[in-house]
Every structure is written in structure tokens, then in C-alpha cells.
Amino acid sequence: MSKSDEDIQLELIEAMSKVANHRDKQAFGLLFVHYASRLFYFALKCTGDRQTARDVAQETLAMIWQKAHLYNQDRGALTTWVYTIARNVCYDLGRQKSRRPQLVSSQDVYEDYFEYQQDIDQDDHQDLNIDKAILLRLVHQLPTEQCDV
Known about the structure:
Layout: H1 5-22, H2 25-47, H3 50-67, H4 78-99, H5 106-141, H6 144-147
Helix pairs in contact: 1-2, 2-3, 2-4, 3-4
């Protein structure tokens, strides 16, 4: 027989109390098993990046361990508290990434340069062919004495 959602929530609240009051690792294990994948998928929706989502889930679970004593059941549901932490971690990581300069490898820069240079070379080659054709046509129109130069 499976447990009801209410029974699961009561177990999770009890586990949170044990973590907060006694730093109970087994109780934290129950919280971890329940929330780890949920937090990952929540973070994946927020960030759109699997590695960042893993980082968010890990950081959120670490904060649950560190700040378990701050959870107050009278102020809201445990799930709300957990997802609020996760959302804030998503925001914090987003701010950190936006402040970091984006690293660009020299290979990327050179590849772009050479592609650009190749495009220019092709355009120049076409222009030279056009110039050459015009020049030959004009040379043929010159009087004979001027062609000898």
C-alpha cells in the first residue's frame, strides 16, 4: 500500500526537524531522495542547462542542510521553502554568470577571421576577374601605337 501525499509530507517535515535539531544524516538522506530529482528538473526549467541545473540542485540541497534550523512550519509548507531556496539559487547563479566575462578561445576568433578573410578573398578574386575583363576590353580599343607600351 502506497503512502498518501499527506503522509509523505509529514515524514518530510519530521525529517527536516531531525536535520535542524540533531543534524541527522539519515533524515537528510530522506529529504535528498525526495527532492534531488525534483530540484534538478525545476532548475532545468529555470536555467535551460543541465550542468547549471545540477549545480542548482546541489547548492539547494546544501543550503537545506545548512539552514534547516530556519524552516518554520507555521510560515509555510516545506516544499514552498525548498523551492524558494532553489529559485533564489537560480537567480544567484544567473547573476554570477552575467557578471563573469564570457571567455572566448583564440581558436574561435581565428576561425571567424579566416572565414571572413576567405569570403573577402573570394570577393576580391571575383572583382579582379571583372577588372581584368574590363581592362582587356579597353586595351583592345586603344590605337595600335598605344598598345605597345
